[in-house]
């Protein structure tokens, strides 16, 4: 899966909850190690498809999940390893 | 170490800690170590993330079970005592007053007496009836309105007799007087439906290992939105590692150091089990068992029973004494002869026993759980009949 954005959080608890909330809302999402330049806070971020961005924001806000910021950020799940690879490494 | 696995125990000490736990608790802990096992919130690797996911799900289940609006209001503690200390010390009105009841456990009373002894607050204890749980609401309200900076602290149910206090009305009086209230739900959580948001309390503390059916070493502190108190301890949280000061956001602010992840995961599974069973059904079952025990005891001579006459006004506890036999001896007879486990003594609540007139010796406390059977209750009644008859014989022989 090619992800186009990540959400960063203050607490990892909120990243876990966000992943659950997005999945329940039918929005593909995946916890990834937080890219350093995006999130210095809790170590993990939630990747999502950029075309879902408005829905992601809405879902997080409706469930009162505290997040730090939403960033466009290209990541690709490497085949076979399940880990995420930074494509651009550039923060918008 | 004795092997107790093959014996027909009758465990009636659920008010101390519940036993047995639902099988899902152990299954969840085993699953945790198989598929997770990393440190919660400390790394981006899969075992850390899997641990974090499970703890987060447990927090959500607990929030749903107790009626919190969001999981952010659920703080994991190591027991109810830690939660009570955090809330009481954090909300203590420096130079002001604390109003509480005479039925409090030492987990409330000792922090309060400490605040009093160190001159930080004065303490007013409003008398509540240990047998019925009744408290004069006008007196309670008047104490709250006496002026100055004030905090209220009250238990939901007596751990000695199981008597329920009118906690909703007490909380309403506190809210009306603009006084924050801390509620000790140690005996009620998981035994009677709880809706923390509707209650209006600033904080509600509960153990994970009693009515909530989780492992020991777990507790939950509900902190209402907007309640901002200092943490009890500070340290690593896995977040904001570049800062040498404590994070100011929940839950990290209050959860320093590595979590009791396996305990929390077990507690989360127990909360899921309780949601399935329905805490209202637990309450109905406990009430039936209390009724059955009291009905049985009504036909036994020489037993004095404490607590509400109406079993629906209690939560699965009956305290009693056998006339002329020390409570510790009765408890030992029950275990030695019938494998019936109870707790004798003051149950960490000296003031409650003074209210019952059972200090300093105390009582024998019987406390059941959802899985306690009618047959176990009947066996306890018969064992008490045998012990009480023995006393009559002894008295007769002496005469």
What does it look like?
The complex is a heterodimer of chains A (92) and B (399). Chain A is α+β, with helices and mostly antiparallel strands. Chain A is built from two helices and five strands, in the order E-H-E-E-H-E-E. The radius of gyration of chain A is 12 Å and the shape is globular. The two termini of chain A are 20 Å apart. The model of chain A is unreliable at 87-92 (pLDDT under 50). With 399 residues, chain B is α/β, with parallel strands linked by helices. Chain B has twelve helices and 13 strands. Chain B has helices at 23-35, 46-66, 80-91, 106-117, 137-144, 167-176, 196-199, 261-277, 279-297, 327-338, 350-356, 374-398; strands at residues 10-11, 74-77, 96-101, 121-126, 150-155, 181-184, 203-207, 219-223, 303-306, 317-322, 340-341, 343-345, 363-367. In chain B, the strands form three sheets. Chain B has a seven-stranded mixed beta sheet with strand order 2-8-7-6-5-3-4, sandwiched between helices. In chain B, helix 1 (23-35) packs across helix 8 (261-277) and helix 9 (279-297) runs parallel beside helix 12 (374-398). The longest helix of chain B is centred in the C-terminal third of the chain and has 25 residues, at 374-398. The chains are: A alpha+beta (92), B alpha/beta (399). The A-B interface holds A 10-13, 15-17, 19-20, 31-34, 40-44, 63-64, 66, 82 and B 40-46, 49, 52-53, 55-57, 59-60, 69-72, 237-242, 247, 249-252.
Distinctive features:
heterodimer; A: 92 residues; alpha+beta; five-stranded antiparallel sheet; 5 strands; 25% helix; 32% strand; disordered C terminus; B: 399 residues; alpha/beta; seven-stranded mixed sheet; four-stranded antiparallel sheet
């Amino acid at each position: 899966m090619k992800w186009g954005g990540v959400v960063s959080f203050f607490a990892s608890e909120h990243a876990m909850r966000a992943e659950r909330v997005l999945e329940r809302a039918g929005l593909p999402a995946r916890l990834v190690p937080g890219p350093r330049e995006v999130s210095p806070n809790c170590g993990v971020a939630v990747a999502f498809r950029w075309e879902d961005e408005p829905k992601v924001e809405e879902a997080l806000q409706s469930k009162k999940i505290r997040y730090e910021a939403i960033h466009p950020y290209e990541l690709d799940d490497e085949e076979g390893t399940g880990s995420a690879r930074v494509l651009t490494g550039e923060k918008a | 170490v004795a092997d107790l696995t093959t014996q027909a125990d009758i465990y009636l000490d659920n008010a101390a800690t519940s036993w047995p736990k639902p099988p899902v608790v152990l299954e969840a802990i085993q699953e945790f170590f198989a598929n997770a096992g990393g440190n919660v919130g400390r790394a981006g690797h899969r075992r850390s993330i899997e641990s974090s996911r499970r703890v987060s799900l447990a927090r959500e289940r607990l929030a749903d079970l107790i009626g919190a609006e969001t999981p952010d209001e659920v703080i994991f503690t190591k027991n109810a005592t830690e939660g009570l200390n955090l809330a009481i010390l954090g909300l203590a009105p420096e130079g002001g007053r604390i109003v509480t009841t005479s039925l409090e456990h030492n987990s409330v009373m000792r922090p309060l007496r400490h605040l009093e002894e160190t001159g930080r607050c004065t303490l007013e204890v409003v008398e509540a009836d240990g047998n019925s749980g009744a408290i004069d609401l006008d007196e309670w309200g008047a104490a709250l309105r006496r002026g100055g900076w004030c905090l209220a602290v009250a238990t939901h149910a007596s751990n000695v007799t199981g008597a329920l206090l009118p906690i909703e009305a007490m909380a309403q009086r506190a809210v009306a007087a603009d006084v924050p209230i801390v509620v000790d739900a140690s005996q009620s959580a998981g035994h009677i439906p709880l809706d923390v948001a509707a209650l209006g309390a600033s904080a509600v503390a509960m153990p994970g290992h009693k009515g909530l059916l989780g492992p020991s070493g777990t507790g939950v502190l509900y902190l209402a939105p907007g309640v901002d108190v200092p943490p009890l301890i500070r340290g690593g949280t896995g977040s904001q590692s570049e800062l040498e000061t404590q994070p100011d956001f929940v839950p990290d602010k209050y959860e320093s150091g590595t979590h009791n992840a396996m305990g929390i995961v077990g507690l989360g599974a127990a909360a899921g089990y309780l949601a399935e069973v329905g805490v209202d059904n637990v309450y109905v079952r406990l009430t039936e068992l209390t009724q059955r025990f009291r009905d049985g005891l009504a036909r036994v001579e020489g037993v004095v029973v404490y607590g509400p006459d109406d079993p629906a006004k209690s939560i699965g506890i009956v305290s009693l004494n056998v006339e002329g036999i020390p409570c510790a001896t009765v408890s030992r007879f029950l275990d030695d002869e019938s494998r019936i486990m109870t707790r004798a003594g003051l149950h960490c609540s000296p003031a409650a026993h003074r209210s019952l007139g059972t200090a300093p010796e105390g009582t024998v406390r019987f406390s059941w759980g959802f899985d306690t059977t009618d047959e176990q209750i009947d066996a306890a009644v018969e064992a008490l009949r045998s012990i009480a008859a023995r006393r009559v014989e002894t008295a007769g022989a002496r005469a």
